[in-house]
Amino acid sequence: MEIHTYEKVWLALSLVLIVGFIATIAYGASAGPGIDMIDDKGGTVDPATLDEHPKFGDPGIEKTGENQYDVYVVARQFVFEPGTSEPLRVPEGSTVTFHVTAADVIHGFEVVGTNANTMAIPGQVAEFTVEFDEAGEYGILCNEYCGSGHHVMEGTILVMEQSEFDSWYEQQEQQTGGEN
Ligand SMILES: [Cu+2]
């Protein structure tokens, strides 16, 4: 049987394509690009009693160590708490672990212009860690269609200078009796 040269070239090219597609999937599914399934480490939570949850009942930032913070965020139609009505404040030079969940439907939580991006799913807690090197302002967007107000669902992350953040944090602690 004779195979024409062009035929061979096309066969070879389609093989390369198939191997390429499989390679991108394998790379995406490995830990390489830092993509995780949401429940891998964050755990679960009952969305019906979120308001009584020790962390998500009063979501916000919590100091856990030297330059280390935990941030709890609740996404609900059509706000981020915190983030929308008040900016989500973090200090410059800090390492922040986000815990993000949703109260009603599936939302997205994307820090615009960065690779910090997760789905927020009712009942699931998405956990990821971000380092904030420079003071500045970042946008937060919902990137999963969540209803009629989806296009206005946004928030702000304010990366503050340490001293500024410290005085805000202290004031915050006093107001909430140290539970935040
Ligand atoms: Cu949305």
Automatic annotation (TrEMBL):
List the GO terms this entry assigns under cellular component, sorted alphabetically.
Answer: membrane
What are the Cytochrome oxidase subunit II copper A binding domain coordinates in residue numbering? 66-171
* Location in or out of the cell: Cell envelope
Q: Which SUPFAM superfamilies match?
A: Cupredoxins
Q: Which UniProt keywords apply?
A: Copper, Metal-binding
Per the UniProt record, one Pfam family is COX2-transmemb
Do you know which InterPro entries this protein is assigned to? Answer: Ba3_CcO_II_C (IPR034214), CcO_II-like_C (IPR002429), Copper_CuA (IPR001505), Cupredoxin (IPR008972), Cyt_c_oxidase_su2a_TM_dom (IPR015209), NosZ/Cyto_c_oxidase_sub2 (IPR051403)
Coiled-coil regions listed = none
Report a single Gene Ontology molecular function: cytochrome-c oxidase activity
What's the superkingdom here? Archaea
Q: What is this protein called?
A: Cytochrome c oxidase subunit II / ba3-type terminal oxidase subunit II
- Lineage, opening ranks: Archaea, Methanobacteriati, Methanobacteriota, Stenosarchaea group, Halobacteria
